[in-house]
Amino acid sequence: MIIKAEKIVLNTTIISGSIEFDDNGIITAVNKGSTNNGLILVPGFVDTHTHGIAGRDFSISAEDVIEDYVKHGVTTYIPTAVSLSREGLRKFCSQMASSKSNVFNLEGPYISASKRGAHALSNLRKPDIREVVECMKLSKNKLAVITVAPEIAMEVIPELIKMGIIVSIGHTDADFPVSELAYLSGATRTTHIFNAMRTFHHRDPGVIIASLLYSNFIEVIPDFFHVDQQIIKYLIQNHWRRLVAITDSISATDLGDGEYSLGDEKVFVKGGKAKLKDGTIAGSTLTMDKAFRNVLELTDLLTTSSIVSYNPAKSINLNDRGELGIGKRADLVVLDSHYTLKEVYAEGKLLFQH
Ligand SMILES: [Zn+2]
């Protein structure tokens, strides 16, 4: 199969030409040549932090929903659970064993009560490494990332890393020294910077400055509601190489306003904004194609593609995707010149057409 495009976004450059891939869904050739069809070809978007979409809540059911994601250009999504009870977590981890996703993300439950956002207070607890070991076993080693608050979970960070789990710092009230120690102890990721963490102050740099100084990858929700557009602009200009756009989307995504669930909590969506009864922000209804267009408003196409595809894939050690090149997965998004999705291929299969 061959796809021609006027602009093909490769890792560090944009060319005009074509991409060829085989029946196994692997890219076999990248050809330069002049093409004036107005099409833009970018790597499939990778959403590393999503709680659900179109009525499905991963914290409740781990069934595969790729068809709901591909229409937004997402060719890899990482099911993410909010803080669950011990029993709920066991159930989630066992369900993940048979999921089509090879990796998943746990947001909590070892996080700060004061920065819990929409996580149920009754589900937060002290770190328990046996629980994580059990989850790994139940899920056939698919647990890839866990968000912890270092002021609660510092002592287990080295153990988690030894198990091959990526430690992400978030839902935390940690000050600078505690956060710094967490990153120096091996935490490499930050969960939705600015949201559900100690507020930045110039005499209290806290976790935000520690993450900007030390974190290899930094998640951000680019819906211009969770974080002001000017701050996203600052992050892109200064930290784009490690910025990871996430949706943090919940089951309400694509369904409109109404009442939904996020794990054990009730969420109310009004005007696309998801909140708990008390007004606390509860995830988002953002989709990755919207995230792509929002980021693109603030920077160029190459940088945007890094933030929505390359960096997210790298951040979770998925080295076979997130970029277009020989030997990589044929995860492709074809856009028209207005950046509207025309076709989406996952592993070479056409899964969406507009
Ligand atoms: Zn989340």
Account of the 3D structure:
The chain is 26% helix and 27% strand. With 354 residues, the protein is of the alpha/beta class. The protein folds into two domains: 77 residues, Urease, subunit C, domain 1; 276 residues, Metal-dependent hydrolases (TIM Barrel). The chain is globular. The two termini are 19 Å apart. 50% of the residues are buried. The model has no long low-confidence stretch (mean pLDDT 96). The protein binds zinc ion. The site of zinc ion has 6 residues, from loops.
Quick recap:
The strands form four sheets. The chain has an eight-stranded parallel beta sheet. A seven-stranded mixed beta sheet has the order 3-2-1-4-18-19-20, covered by helices on one side. It has a three-stranded antiparallel beta sheet with strand order 15-16-17, with no helix packed on it. It has ten helices and 20 strands. The protein has helices at residues 66-70, 86-97, 129-138, 150-153, 157-162, 176-184, 206-214, 229-239, 288-298, 301-315, and strands at residues 2-9, 14-21, 27-32, 40-43, 45-50, 52-53, 56-57, 74-81, 104-107, 143-148, 166-169, 189-190, 217-220, 243-245, 258-262, 265-270, 273-275, 332-335, 341-346, 349-353.
